[in-house]
Design goal:
By secondary structure, this protein is mostly helical. Helices cover 49% and strands 3% of the residues. It has one domain. The chain has four helices and two strands. The chain is globular and about 35 Å long. Zinc ion binds next to helix 3.
């Protein structure tokens, strides 16, 4: 069970795909920006990251908090089909996290393009 608190969403491949993308983007960002921070294996109560990504992402404490926030927000998103967040009338993120995740998307999006991982951009969230 990937999503512990909202089991019916486990069957939605769009949600699962978006969660994977969020983990990947935050991981790339943390790797590049917080290399000297104390990065540890991330363990969330809400989502089973091991099952979602097949491994345990290593993140600094700040990025772990951002990831926890982002995964919960994506999981409980009531919009269907989900618009890109910047076009959404709701803006459900806490303002601090919203600014942070936009920075993450920009930074990691550029990095993944340079690495030729354009597949990630096909389902960009932001
Ligand atoms: Zn970090």
């Amino acid at each position: 069970m990937i999503i512990q608190f909202c089991p019916e969403k486990n069957d939605d491949p769009k949600v699962i795909g978006d969660l994977k993308t969020l983990v990947k983007f935050i991981e790339v960002y943390c790797e590049g920006q917080h290399d000297d921070a104390d990065r540890e294996g991330t363990d969330l109560k809400t989502h089973n990251l091991q099952e979602l990504t097949g491994r345990t992402p290593r993140l600094c404490p700040d990025c772990q908090k951002l990831l926890a926030h982002a995964l919960v927000k994506r999981t409980v998103c009531p919009m269907d089909p989900k618009p890109q967040c910047k076009h959404c009338p709701k803006h459900c993120y806490h303002p601090n996290y919203r600014q942070k995740i936009q920075e993450v998307m920009k930074y990691s999006g550029r990095k993944l393009v340079m690495r030729g991982r354009v597949d990630y951009l096909l389902h960009l969230l932001f």
